[in-house]
Amino acid sequence: MKNLKISLTTIVLLIFALACSNDEPAEQQSVKPIEGATEVEVSVILPSGSNLDLTTTEIVSLGESFKVPASGKTKIYVAPGNRSFVSLQDKNGEVIFMGFITNEEKELSIASSGKAALYFGLGTIFQVEQTKETYFKDYNSQKEIIAFNEAITPIFISDKYFLKSDTFKNLVKNTIIELTSLKEITSKTNKVKDVIVNDTDEKSGVKVTNEGPLSIGFQSQSRRRSYAYIYKIASKPIGSNSFTTVPRALVNQTEISRSDGFTSTLGTFWTGATGKGQELFIKDTPAISLPLSDDESAAKFEVKVIGLSCEGNPTEGMSEEEKKKYNDMQMDYFVFDLILPALGTALGAESFDSTGGELFKTAVVSALGSSATEEVSKGNFKKAANDFMGEFIKGNLSSTLDNVLETIVQFSDLDNIDLGVGGTAKIFKPLAVIDALLQLNDFIRLQASACTSNAIEKWEVIASRSTNINLLPKESIIRPGSSQTLELKISSDGQLGTGQSYEMEWTTSGNYGSLNNGSVAFTNSSKTVIYTANPFLSDDNAEDDVSVKLYIKDDKGNKTLLGEDNAIVKIAKNKYKIVPENPYLKGGDFVNLSVVDFEGNPIPNPPTGSIKIEWGTTGTYGKYDGVTNYYNAPNQNAGPTYECQDYNTKTGIENINAKIYLYSSEGKKLIDEVKGIININNDPNVKFVNVSIVEKTVGISFTIDAVFKIPSDKDAKTYKIEVLEMNPDSSPSRKGMTYTWTPTSYDNAKIKIDGDNFVFYGMDYGAGVHVSNGPGIAQAKAFYAGVTGKAKVTITK
Q1: Do residues 588 and 675 share a domain?
Q2: What is the CA radius of gyration of the chain?
Q3: Count of CB atoms situated within 10 Å of the CB of 186
Q4: 118-132 pLDDT per residue, tens
Q5: Are 497 and 586 contained in the same domain?
Q6: Cα 119 vs. chain centroid, distance in angstroms?
Q7: 283-289 and 296-307: which strand pairing?
Q8: Domain limits for position 123
Q9: Whether residue 589 is found in the same domain as residue 667
Q10: In whole angstroms, what separates CA 316 from the centre of its chain?
Q11: Are 28 and 67 in contact (CB under 8 A)?
Q12: Where are the strands (E) in 473-585, listed by range?
């Protein structure tokens, strides 16, 4: 076993307090070999204009002190085959330079100090080994680094303790902003069609993907620890047209692989700086199966992901097994993401053998004490570290903490180390500087993704045996009496050979509608089918299942089942809706309301009689026409004007409704009642902008596009735009589209600068129509003259 001789008190005190010590410097130790270490000659490089006397300094590496002559060249010992964090200190132990030394990189200078500063400032210390290697590999290739190093020089000339100065910390912070940018998780191309993820949204940094056959995967864009449980909730027996609810049963579970880089706050150094894209941000979890029994053709599953969160009661809604897993993840986060990197770096370790993970965790848990353990269970990780230190200061943890450090040495790249009490104090002097750099990212950035995530996220997934066919749309919503066309998509595995033809067996449960000419089951050779909902419907949650079996039939009439699939058609009870849908208003704003059918058409005149609409509102934030909660429209095309009279409420919801009556010789009959909401928003950091049409003529080329112009705010840190309305809309829909950017970091294809405005082109609405002749220009202008849209912009300061 490797041996460790070290002052435990000093290590823990300095690691977790991370504060400068004013102790007198220890007596200079003689230079002597450190077992297993490599001797290298290091050069201390001073910039022109510096009057620092190097003979009053020493280099501290692996706990040993090495005097520096006037030439700046001296031999020191470093960890074999790896980087060693070393520092140049004066006689009082104050840090002047710092850096990572290897057999190839042998300089301590302004440049090495800057590289180390960004290493800590970007949070690279807490990342996996692969990302650390990429950091060091790509560091010098960034153009921003040249300017960064040049800016450090005058700071050092004026203050040799520049690493602790606010000027330097601000320089590091600004450089981080230049090097990095916000990233979003990318969509993954579906590989197969036998797994349908009804909700494809990314939630709390996790996205569910179909991986097939009969399996799903996960994409993660953060280093947050999370875990997935798969529960079967419904079954569709072979030969059945509908799902049956079954007792909720756990069928599979998996740990979700964590991203190789940070995306919670600033992104990762090399992708943000070099524009390599998002591939390093997203980590794929190996496929996990969705089991079907022999008598099932399909099943529905609930995917429940639990992950670290800053919520007040994160385990609410979890089973006992899930709570235990959550508590384990909290301890793993504390042990492996915080304690191990900090202690390992301080000791000079560059790698840790994962086989020692459980031993290390056991050692840390034993050393924590009940108070610190309780803080970890509450998610108070910084408090846990302070309690950990406090227990040790009382003298309670000497032997147990010794096991922690011995485990690091045993399973790391370190060998026998004799740091000694004096050496220990010196090796941890840089940690006050390191702490200040870590604070640039709100303590430890690993925790940032947890504080923007929910402890529980859920998805619904449908798995079926077919991998060759796909009935689309997988889920649709129609009104009573209206129709939905479904189309069968067939993969290359199902392409016809000579003499073959397709045969489709279509079926539906028929609870709320029928197929084609009133049938609930029939056979044909068409790839499309029309589902028509019954004109009269009373159920609030009506839905029908449409199923198809695809056969390949040869010229002799023999049939082979190629696959089967299903789709869900939901039937909304109301025939009509209030428009505009869910508008946003602030104090003093108006909106004209009306009722239309599901396709956006006005209510037609009845064959006999007339239509009248009675409007109502709760009137919490405003009134119809500014004076009343009720409005009786004289006909179906007339509607009230709602005025928001609340100027103070930041956010609120006003409920509105419209009762539609048919007046005839038989009297007054209610034919529909529709409800809606009006969003009230007086938040000064939320703006609403209308769509703008921009035109550009270059030579004979004319370009026209629909965009949103957002006035810049001098105090803004981030902007987020959400498209609320877009008429006419396009496919895919622009409604609900979002994009986030900073004043200095954005996708040039989505955001352009126009004076004091950011211009959002990210909708790709029409992708910018390019026209080069007179009639075409006139047609384009005529179309865009009718385009309307609205977006919500949230500014973070």
Answers
A1: yes
A2: 33
A3: 15
A4: 887 776 665 556 567
A5: no
A6: 23
A7: unpaired
A8: 4-179+346-351+415-443
A9: yes
A10: 22
A11: yes
A12: 475-478, 483-490, 501-508, 513-515, 521-524, 528-533, 542-553, 559-571, 576-579, 584-585
Count other Cβ atoms within 10 Å, centred on residue 673.
15
Tell whether the model's pLDDT for residue 262 goes beyond 50.
no
Q: How far apart are CA 124 and CA 133, in angstroms?
A: 10
Q: Are residue 664 and residue 721 in the same domain, yes or no?
A: no
Are 541 and 676 in a shared domain?
no
- pLDDT tier, 30 (very low <50, low <70, confident <90, very high otherwise): very low
Residue 774 lies in a domain: yes
Q: Coil, strand or helix: which one is 337?
A: helix
Give me the residues paired with residue 84 across strands: 101
Contact indicator for 230, 306 with CB cutoff of 8 Å: no
Spatial CB neighbours of 642, under 8 Å, sequence gap ≥ 6: 585, 590, 591, 593, 617, 622, 623, 624, 654, 656, 678
- Domain match, 175 and 47 both: yes
Nearest-angstrom CA–CA distance, 437 and 267? 16
Among 433, 443, 473, smallest CA distance to 565 is for: 473
Please name which of 231, 237, 235 lies closest in space to residue 249, comparing C-alpha atoms: 231
- Local structure of 542: helix, strand or coil: strand
| CATH code of residue 587 | 2.60.40.10
**pLDDT tens-place string over residues 370-420:** 777 888 888 777 777 666 655 544 444 456 666 766 676 666 655 555 434
For residues 681 and 588, is the Cβ–Cβ distance under 8 A? no
**Is residue 265 scored above 50 in pLDDT?**
no
Render pLDDT for 443-490 as a digit per residue (tens, 0 to 9). Answer: 334 455 676 788 999 998 988 765 567 888 877 778 788 888 999 887
- With beta carbons less than 8 A apart as the criterion, state whether 330 and 377 touch: yes
Which tokens belong to 251? 């069928």
* Helical segments of 710-789, H only: 774-785
Judge if 526 and 658 occupy the same domain: no
Structural domain ending residue among the three candidates 681, 703, 728: 681
Residue that wins the pLDDT comparison between 112 and 382: 112
Same-domain pairing of 525 and 651: no
Structural domain includes residue 438: yes
Length of the chain: 797
- Determine if residue 358 is left, alpha or beta; phi over 0 gives left, psi from -120 to 50 gives alpha, anything else beta: alpha
Final residue before a domain boundary, out of 681, 701, 732: 681
∠ CA(320), CA(326), CA(332), 5° rounding?
Answer: 140
Collapsing DSSP to helix, strand or coil, 277 comes out as: coil
Please name the amino acid found at residue 766. Answer: G
- Pair of tokens at residue 687: 């703006």
Name the token pair of 354: 């994962």
Number of domains forming the structure of the chain: 4
Mean pLDDT for the stretch of residues 29-43: 67
Report yes or no on 99 lying in a domain.
yes
Measured distance CA(401)–CA(379) in Å, rounded: 22
Taking the model in full, what pTM does it have?
A: 0.43
Identity at 561, one-letter amino acid code: L
Is 664 within the bounds of a domain? yes
- Residue 364's closest CA among 355, 372, 354, 352? 372
> What's the rounded Cα separation, in Å, for the pair 700 and 663?
59
| Average of per-residue pLDDT values in the chain | 76
Tokens representing 389 are: 């230190």
CA angle 135, 136, 139 (to 5 degrees): 75
